[in-house]
Every structure is written in C-alpha cells, then in structure tokens.
Design a protein that fits this description.
Blueprint: H1 7-12, E1 22-27, E2 41-54, E3 58-71, E4 79-91, H2 93-103, E5 107-120, E6 122-123, E7 126-128, E8 137-138, E9 142-143, E10 150-153, E11 159-167, E12 172-189, E13 192-202, E14 211-215, E15 220-225, E16 236-242, E17 254-255, E18 258-259
Antiparallel strand pairs: 1-16, 2-3, 2-13, 3-4, 4-10, 4-11, 5-7, 5-8, 5-9, 5-12, 6-11, 12-13, 12-14, 15-16, 17-18
C-alpha cells in the first residue's frame, strides 16, 4: 500500500504527539504502509512531606509518594489520560507504636474521601481523586508493628485511568501538584475495627510537580521516500517534516500495524 495514500491517516494519528523538528530514518519490518503512531509515555514518581492532623496523635508529618504514567509530550487541545495512578502514605513509627500500645492494633486501613490534585496548563484545573468516579480511595488492611513505620498503598490497586484531560490551546507545560486530602484511619484490634475518624492533610507548600508534560505543536510531514515497498519489508524509509523529537525514542511510527525501528 502506498505511503502517500495513507499519509493523511498517519498525520491524523499524530505521528506521536512527541515529535520535534528534524529528520529521521525508519526501517520498516513489513510493507511500508504508514497507518498510525503511538505517543511515547513517561512514568513518574514523586515524594512529598504532608502536614497532617490526626485524632489522638495530633500533628504529624506524613510522607506521600505518588506515581503513574503520562504522555511524554502532548499537542495543544489534545485530550489525554494519566494511567496507573498510585499513592502510598508512610505513617510514622511513633503513631503506629501508640496505636499498638493503646489499642493492641495489628493492622491499619486508610480510606481517603478527598485527594485533590491541582493541574496547570490543562482543563480541568483540579481533580478530586477521593470523590466519584475515582474514589473513595481505600487501602488494604496493612499489618503494623510497634516501633516501625507503616507504608500503606492507597488505593489498594492503581487507578487505571484518570481523565479525560484537555491540554491548553497554546504550547506550554502541563504540570500536576498534590493538594489537600481527608482520610479516615481505622485499626484492626482484638475487639474488631477501631475507627479513629478523619485525618486532614494540607498540600505541600511550593511543591515541585509530580509530573510535567511539554505541550508542543503537532508535527507535520512534508515528504516520504520511498512511497511504496515490497511485502517482505526491510525497507529504509526517510520522512521529512517539522515537529519531530530530537530524542529517537519519542518518535514512533507503525507500518502495517508493525512498529518501525527509528
């Protein structure tokens, strides 16, 4: 199938929203019929120190680690999603020891009814992951021991997909930051479940973003050579244009549904 015949489909597929100006050579593993490209992704992990107020214990600092997967780059007005979003809270050893000594607790469970993430450069500008359709976020019952901190994954399994999120109309970064949260903490005790009530945490002051995604103009293709090839594949195809990435790993293209070597 002719590449030129399918060029409009290639462009509508974005040719990877991550391309920056340049030239790349792709070696096709099948007949060179370009159909679509998949945007590259990035995984992110960031840890913050939250200032919290908990029943009985009072004020405490709780480390929060957030992770997930986001596009490496996006185009203006592009709709995208954050996938495999996960978080964990590390309850200090002092608070765990107090629960063990006072309640004879053996496990802790956390249920977040509010978990705000603020966004810049996109719509919506904030998302409450503790509310429907994502929340409440509930951890598994996590075993605890005196004199040891407890790291609790919340929710128990990552959120598959957060969105849709729409990039702004002009180039610029999308950045996300943790905000305020409210979580109910309960302990497993010999007499049953002991619910201590809500713990409130404020977002970190002047945080660095948990994820930052450049918003760049969509790529364009000006020429493709050769315009056809054999079904055996193995052809070298040169694609000229603008908006390509200077990082080869961010430039992705399929031929006949098969990824090409860039």
């Amino acid at each position: 199938m002719m590449i030129r015949k399918n060029l409009s489909r290639l462009l509508s597929g974005g040719l990877g929203a991550s391309l920056v100006a340049g030239l790349f050579v792709a070696t096709a593993t099948t007949a060179p019929s370009a159909e679509a490209a998949t945007s590259a992704t990035q995984t992110f992990t960031q840890t913050y120190q939250l200032s919290c107020t908990a029943p009985i214990v009072g004020a405490l600092t709780v480390p929060l680690t957030i992770s997930g997967t986001a596009p490496s780059q996006i185009s203006p007005n592009q709709v995208f999603y954050i996938t495999n979003s996960a978080a964990s809270l590390t309850i200090p050893a002092s608070a765990i020891t107090e629960a063990v000594n006072l309640l004879h607790a053996s496990a802790i469970t956390i249920k977040a009814s509010q978990f705000v993430v603020t966004d810049q450069g996109v719509t919506p500008t904030s998302v409450d992951l503790g509310a429907a359709p994502f929340g409440p976020l509930v951890s598994a019952a996590t075993p605890i021991s005196a004199n040891l901190p407890a790291t609790v994954a919340i929710p128990a399994s990552p959120i598959p997909q957060v969105g849709p999120i729409t990039a702004g109309s002009a180039p610029g970064p999308f950045e996300a930051f943790p905000g305020s949260s409210i979580a109910d903490i309960s302990f497993t005790t010999p007499s049953g479940i002991s619910d201590l009530g809500n713990t409130t945490c404020s977002g970190p002051s002047n945080p660095i973003p948990m994820v930052s995604v450049p918003v760049v103009n969509a790529p364009t293709v000006t020429s493709v050579s050769p315009s056809s090839g054999t079904n055996a594949g193995g052809n070298t195809v040169t694609i000229n244009g603008t908006g390509f990435s200077t990082t080869a790993a961010n430039d992705t293209i399929d031929f006949g549904g098969n990824p090409a070597m860039v």
